[in-house]
C-alpha cells in the first residue's frame, strides 16, 4: 500500500479510510507503514468485509456439510449424539410453544378462574416436561460436543502438520506454495470453532423454524409478521458484525506492531542494546505513540458502531410497532383468538432475541470456514508436493554417492547455486567442501542428503563397484534418509531436555541412554551435561524449570552428538566447529576422523582449512562450480590455485612474529603455508 499524505494523521480528517488513519508515525518509522504478514490469509479481509447475509446463508450448507464430515470422521458416535440432541431441542421448542398455546387457551376460556386453572394443569405439566427434556438435551449436547471438539481439532491439525512436514524442500522454497502452506496453519483450530458455532446456529435455527411452523399453523399472518421483525434485526446484526470485523482487522495490524515492539523489550538478546544504545527509550516512546493512535481509532469505531446500532434499532422498532399493530387489529376484529395472540407475542420475542446471536454466529462461522478452507487447500497442495512414499530401495551395501553434472537453481533465483557439479563421496573417506561464502557448499550437502532434487544431472547411490545403483529421483527417500546424518549450519535447538536433544536424531525410536552418552562423549559435551544439577533431564533453554543456558559452542557439541547418535553411514556436517575453542575444535575434527576409520563417509563443509589438510579429497567450489579437486598436497602444488591462495591467506594470520600484510593484492606473502598453518 502506498501513502502520499502527511505523516502526522489529522484526527478530523474523516474522509480518510480507517486503514490509512490507523498508521502512526512510529509505525512508519519502525516498520515503514502497517506491519502486515506476507500471507494469504490477508486475502480474506476483502470477502469478509463485503459479505452479505444472503452470501453467508448460501454458504451455510457447505459449512454444515464440512463440519458434519469432519466430526463424523473424528467420532461418529459423538457426532450422531450432537445432531440428535439438536433435532430433539428443536422438537421440544415446538412442543413448548404448543403447550404455551394450550395453557393460554385454557386460561382465556370462559368460566370460573379456579376451573380454568384446573383445566390448564395438563398443558402446564406438558410445558414443564418440555422444559425438562430441553434441559436434558442441552446437557447431552454439551457433553457430546465437548467430547467431539478436541478430537476434531486434533484430526485437522494432525492432517495438516503431517502433510506439510512431508513436502519436498524445494516446494517449500517457492513463495506461492510457502504462502498457502503457512496460511493453512491459521485454520487448524477453525474446525473446532466451527463445530461449536454450528451447534449454536443449529440450535437457534431449529427452534426458530419450530416457532415459525407453530405460528403458521395457528394463523398464516403470523409467519410474515415474524419475518418483518426479523429482517431489520438481521440487517442490523450483519452490519454490526461486519463493522466489528473491520475494527478487528485494523486492530490486528496495531496489535501485531505493538506486540512485536514490546516483545523486544524483554527479549534476552536485545537487553544489551536496549540499555547501552538506548534502544529501550526509543521503543517505549514509539509504543506510547502507537497506543495513543490506537485509542483514537477505537473511539472512531465506537462512534460509528453506535450510529449503526441506532439505525438498526430504529428500523427494528418501527417493524415491531407495525407488527404489533397488525396483531392488535387481528385480535380486535376477532380473526385471532386472544390465546393465539399471546403465543405469537412470546414466539416473536423469543425468535427476534435469538436472531442477533444467530447472525453473529453465522458471521463467525463463515469467517472460520474461510480459514478452514485455507487449511484444506494447504493439505491438498502439500499432498501434491509431498516426498513420494514409494521408490526403489537403495542397494544394501551402499558405498558411495556419485554426482554427475548436477545443476540446481533455487526457485525464483536468477542464477544456479550449483552448475555442472560432478563428484564422489565414499565411505571410509573424509570429503571436504570448501569455497567462498555463497559458493554452493550448503546447497551441495542438501543434494547429497536427498533433500533437494537437482534440476539437471544425476545423483547415484551406488555399491562399491558401481554395479548396483539407484538414482535419487527414483529412490525410496525414507530408505535414503535413513542412511544420512546431518549437522546443518543452523541446526535446530530444541527447547527440550539435553537427552531429548541428542536422541531426537533417531525420530521416534526408543531412546538408548548408553548410546546418547557415548555420542555426547564423542562430541565432547558429556562431562558438561553430567555436571548439571539435573543432568540429562536439564532443559537446555533458560526460562524453564530445570532450564540451563548453553553457550554457542556447547550447543554445537550437542548438535554434533545428535548427528553421531544417529549412527548413519553418510554424515554431512556443515561448519561443525565454527563456535568451538581451539582445543575443542581439534577434538571435534579428531572425532570426525575416527568415523572415517569406522567406515563411514564424512562430508565436511568448513572454512577451517587446517582441518581439510587431512581430508581424503577436497572439492573447491566457486559460484556453484567445482573449480579444483584433489588432496591437500595436490592442491597446494598448484601455484595459481584458489585453494592454495585461501589456505595461504588463513595460515598467514597465525604468524606471530610478523603480521600478515599482503605485499600485493591477492598475494599474502606467506613463505611456507603448510608450516605456518594452524596446527
Ligand atoms: N533458500 C535459498 N533460496 C534462494 N537462494 C539460496 C537459498 N539458499 C542459498 N541460496 C543461494 O545459493 C547460493 C549458494 O548458497 P549456499 O548456502 O549453498 O552457499 P555456501 O557456500 O554454503 O555459503 P556459506 O559459506 O556462506 O555458508 C548463494 O548465492 C545463496 O544466496
UniProtKB/TrEMBL annotation:
Residues 401-648 form the ABC transporter domain. Keywords: ATP-binding, Membrane, Nucleotide-binding, Transmembrane, Transmembrane helix. One of its GO terms (cellular component) is plasma membrane. Pfam families: ABC_tran (PF00005). One of its GO terms (molecular function) is ATP binding. Residues 1-10 have a biased composition (Basic residues). It is a multi-pass membrane protein. PROSITE patterns: ABC_TM1F, ABC_TRANSPORTER_2. Residues 1-23, 654-679 are annotated as: Disordered. Residues 80-367 form the ABC transmembrane type-1 domain. The chain crosses the membrane at residues 78-100, 120-140, 194-214, 220-238, 310-331. SMART domains: AAA (SM00382). It is found in: Cell membrane. InterPro entries: AAA+_ATPase (IPR003593), ABC1_TM_dom (IPR011527), ABC1_TM_sf (IPR036640), ABC_transporter-like_ATP-bd (IPR003439), P-loop_NTPase (IPR027417), Type_1_exporter (IPR039421). SUPFAM superfamilies: ABC transporter transmembrane region, P-loop containing nucleoside triphosphate hydrolases. This is ABC transporter related protein. It comes from Streptomyces pratensis (strain ATCC 33331 / IAF-45CD).
Amino acid at each position: 500500500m502506498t501513502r502520499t499524505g502527511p505523516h502526522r494523521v489529522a484526527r478530523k480528517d474523516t474522509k480518510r479510510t480507517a486503514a490509512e488513519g490507523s498508521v502512526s508515525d512510529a509505525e512508519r518509522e519502525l516498520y515503514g507503514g502497517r506491519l502486515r504478514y506476507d500471507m494469504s490469509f490477508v486475502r480474506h479481509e476483502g470477502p469478509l468485509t463485503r459479505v452479505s447475509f444472503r452470501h453467508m446463508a448460501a454458504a451455510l450448507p457447505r459449512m454444515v456439510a464440512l463440519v458434519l464430515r469432519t466430526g463424523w470422521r473424528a467420532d461418529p458416535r459423538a457426532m450422531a449424539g450432537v445432531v440428535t440432541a439438536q433435532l430433539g431441542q428443536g422438537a421440544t421448542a415446538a412442543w413448548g410453544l404448543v403447550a404455551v398455546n394450550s395453557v393460554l387457551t385454557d386460561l382465556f376460556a370462559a368460566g370460573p378462574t379456579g376451573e380454568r386453572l384446573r383445566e390448564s394443569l395438563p398443558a402446564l405439566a406438558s410445558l414443564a416436561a418440555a422444559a425438562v427434556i430441553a434441559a436434558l438435551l442441552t446437557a447431552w449436547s454439551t457433553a457430546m460436543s465437548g467430547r467431539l471438539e478436541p478430537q476434531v481439532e486434533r484430526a485437522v491439525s494432525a492432517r495438516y502438520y503431517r502433510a506439510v512436514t512431508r513436502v519436498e524442500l524445494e516446494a517449500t522454497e517457492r513463495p506461492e506454495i510457502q504462502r498457502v502452506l503457512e496460511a493453512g496453519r491459521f485454520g487448524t483450530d477453525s474446525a473446532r470453532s466451527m463445530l461449536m458455532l454450528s451447534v449454536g446456529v443449529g440450535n437457534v435455527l431449529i427452534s426458530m423454524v419450530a416457532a415459525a411452523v407453530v405460528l403458521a399453523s395457528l394463523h398464516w399472518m403470523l409467519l410474515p409478521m415474524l419475518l418483518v421483525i426479523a429482517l431489520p434485526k438481521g440487517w442490523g446484526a450483519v452490519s454490526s458484525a461486519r463493522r466489528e470485523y473491520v475494527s478487528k482487522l485494523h486492530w490486528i495490524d496495531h496489535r501485531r506492531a505493538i506486540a512485536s515492539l514490546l516483545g523486544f523489550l524483554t527479549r534476552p538478546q536485545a537487553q544489551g542494546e536496549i540499555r547501552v544504545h538506548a534502544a529501550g527509550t526509543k521503543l517505549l516512546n514509539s509504543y506510547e505513540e502507537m497506543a495513543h493512535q490506537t485509542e483514537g481509532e477505537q473511539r472512531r469505531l465506537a462512534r460509528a458502531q453506535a450510529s449503526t446500532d441506532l439505525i438498526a434499532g430504529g428500523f427494528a422498532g418501527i417493524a415491531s410497532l407495525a407488527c404489533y399493530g397488525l396483531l392488535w387489529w387481528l385480535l380486535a376484529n376477532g380473526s385471532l383468538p386472544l390465546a393465539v395472540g399471546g403465543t405469537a407475542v412470546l414466539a416473536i420475542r423469543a425468535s427476534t432475541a435469538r436472531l442477533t446471536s444467530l447472525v453473529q454466529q453465522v458471521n463467525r462461522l463463515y469467517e472460520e470456514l474461510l480459514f478452514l478452507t485455507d487449511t484444506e487447500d494447504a493439505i491438498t497442495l502439500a499432498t501434491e508436493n509431498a516426498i513420494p512414499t514409494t521408490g526403489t530401495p537403495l542397494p544394501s551395501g551402499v558405498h558411495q554417492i556419485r554426482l554427475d553434472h548436477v545443476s540446481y537453481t533455487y526457485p525464483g533465483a536468477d542464477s544456479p547455486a550449483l552448475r555442472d557439479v560432478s563428484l564422489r563421496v565414499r565411505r571410509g573417506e573424509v570429503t571436504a567442501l570448501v569455497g567462498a561464502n555463497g559458493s554452493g557448499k550448503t546447497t551441495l550437502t542438501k543434494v547429497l542428503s536427498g533433500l533437494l532434487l537437482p534440476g539437471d544431472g544425476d545423483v547415484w547411490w551406488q555399491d562399491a563397484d558401481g554395479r548396483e545403483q539407484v538414482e535419487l529421483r527414483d529412490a525410496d527417500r525414507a530408505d535414503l534418509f535413513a542412511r544420512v546424518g546431518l549437522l546443518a549450519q543452523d541446526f535446530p535447538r530444541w527447547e527440550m531436555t539435553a537427552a531429548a536433544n541428542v536422541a531426537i536424531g533417531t525420530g521416534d525410536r526408543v531412546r538408548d541412554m548408553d548410546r546418547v552418552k557415548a555420542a555426547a562423549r564423542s562430541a565432547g559435551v558429556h562431562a558438561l551435561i553430567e555436571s548439571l544439577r539435573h543432568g540429562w533431564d536439564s532443559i537446555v533453554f533458560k526460562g524453564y524449570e530445570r532450564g540451563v543456558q548453553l553457550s554457542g559452542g556447547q550447543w554445537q557439541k550437542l548438535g554434533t552428538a545428535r548427528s553421531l547418535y544417529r549412527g548413519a553411514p553418510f554424515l554431512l556436517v556443515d561448519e561443525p566447529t565454527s563456535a568451538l575453542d581451539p582445543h575443542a575444535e581439534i577434538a571435534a575434527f579428531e572425532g570426525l576422523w575416527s568415523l572415517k576409520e569406522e567406515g563411514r563417509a564424512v562430508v565436511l563443509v568448513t572454512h577451517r582449512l587446517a582441518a581439510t589438510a587431512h581430508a581424503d579429497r577436497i572439492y573447491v567450489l566457486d559460484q556453484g562450480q567445482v573449480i579444483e579437486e584433489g588432496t591437500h598436497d595436490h592442491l597446494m602444488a598448484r601455484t595459481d590455485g584458489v585453494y592454495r591462495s585461501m589456505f595461504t591467506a588463513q595460515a598467514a594470520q597465525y604468524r606471530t612474529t610478523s603480521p600478515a600484510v599482503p605485499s600485493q593484492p591477492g598475494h599474502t606473502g606467506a613463505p611456507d603455508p603448510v608450516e605456518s598453518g594452524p596446527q
